[in-house]
Write a structure and sequence with these properties.
Elements lengths: L2 H9 L14 H25 L5 H21 L10 H9 L3 H18 L3 H22 L5 H25 L1
Helix pairs in contact: 1-4, 2-3, 2-6, 3-5, 3-6, 5-6
């Protein structure tokens, strides 16, 4: 079995694995992926710019931002990392994560360089990567309900409140 066959087998969903249907629509999934790629680009350029200094904290934040860019590309766009043998396997494993797990990982990964060195470069460079985490976090909240079901719930609560009020008034 060649290395390419192993990658395709690792990227293929397993029969017992949880399905990728996490309630996200196809366009929202692509929006999250595009935001991840844009976040990777912004982290890479801002990280490189941040490394052009003599301040060691800025250099450390810049290196971390370039690492963030690599991880974002690896998880969200493995076709950008075709020269890496395990890119498809990492992407398949990242696709199995729940949206809230991706949200926590991406937001935490984007906040660290800002905490390390609070500059405009680190702030703006990590903003799109953080926004990617926010998009995944919003998808973890689930779909919004329709107006009819909310109206029914509101009507039932209103009737229950009126019955309680009437019971309290009759008891006096």
């Amino acid at each position: 079995v060649s290395a390419m066959d192993e990658q395709f087998q690792a990227a293929a969903p397993e029969p017992g694995a949880p399905c990728a249907d996490d309630g996200m629509t196809w366009w929202y999934r692509w929006l999250c992926r595009m935001a991840g790629v844009a976040g990777g680009l912004s982290c890479a350029f801002a990280g490189l710019w941040s490394c052009v200094t003599i301040n060691p904290l800025n250099i450390a934040a810049g290196v971390w931002m370039m690492l963030n860019a690599f991880i974002l590309f690896l998880c969200e766009a493995p076709f950008c990392c075709q020269f890496i043998e395990f890119a498809n396997a990492v992407s398949a494993r990242a696709d199995k994560l729940r949206p809230w797990q991706k949200a926590a990982f991406y937001c935490g990964m984007a906040v660290f360089p800002v905490v390390l060195s609070l500059t405009l470069t680190t702030l703006f460079g990590n903003a799109i990567a953080f926004a990617t985490g926010v998009l995944y976090g919003l998808s973890a909240l689930g779909k919004k309900g329709d107006a009819i079901s909310y109206a029914r719930i509101h009507q039932q609560q209103k009737q229950m409140d009126e019955e309680k009020l009437m019971g309290a008034l009759e008891g006096q």
